[in-house]
Amino acid sequence: MTAVNPCQGERAPVHITRYGDREFRYQIQYLSNSSRASIKVHVHPNGQVQVDAPDNASLQEIKAAVQRRARWVLKHLDDIEERNRDVLPRQWVSGESQLYLGRRYVLKVINDPEQRKVTCKLIRGQLRVQGKALSPERTQRAVREWYRDRARDVFQRRLELMADKLPWTKATPPWRIIEMQTQWGSCTPEGVVLLNPHLVKAPTKAIDYVILHELCHLEEHNHSPHFYGLLDRFMPEWRGVKERLDLRVEEVLGGRL
Ligand SMILES: [Zn+2]
Q: What is the pLDDT of residues 154-182, one digit of tens each?
């Protein structure tokens, strides 16, 4: 699991780069109509290495560019492995932490024999689940429902704000939440924006970035230079936001909702 581009790229042939006694595989994504663009190397949070290159770049140029970034790529791959090692399965007991809008909250499970209906509330830095005979499964279900409610609310507000800023969205487009294994968001050919409820764990800025990415697809369906131009225009700092979101992916998605 774990990918994490808002949208997935197409499959491309795999190449190998060696550095010292190590090697890594990467895929090349050729960008059309972008003869002036430079070759960019990305490490996705699932460890996949992707190289974006203008369509007039030769394989030799691309390989040289990847070689120059090899040390950086391997460092990223090591970091990913390190982070994955730390992701432990959740027990759904008091003391575990939960993320919401980029901040950590301590989970507090309170067994209350008097309370039939399980509640989940954010109170003074704690995510408090309260109810009768709370098993880990019941606690998990309550937290999951809470995240979905928060996601509906937060995404609606952020979508309205973002749609307001963009000249091509006259009103908030139709949207819904859907749990996706490999994407934060998506946009259907009919123009329906799909958002992963896990995204509500990330900071607001990251949510805005994913929403903006999908709303830009209403104007430009592909990841063309024009598409990235729109992102640059409406969120000039989007690359940094995306990078930080990608770095935290295991943390955000690791604790399965
Ligand atoms: Zn996309």
A: 999 999 999 999 999 989 999 999 987 77
184: CA distance to ligand 1 center in Å? 10
Model-level pTM? 0.68
Distance in Å from the first CA to the final CA of the chain:
14
218, two tokens: 């209403």
Ligand 1 centroid from CA 138, angstroms: 36
Quick one: 35 and 113 in the same domain? no
Domain boundary among 86, 114, 137: 86
Segment 64-111, tens digit of pLDDT:
999 999 999 999 988 887 776 666 678 899 999 899 999 999 999 999
What SS3 class is residue 182? Answer: coil
CA–centroid distance, residue 99 to ligand 1 (Å): 25
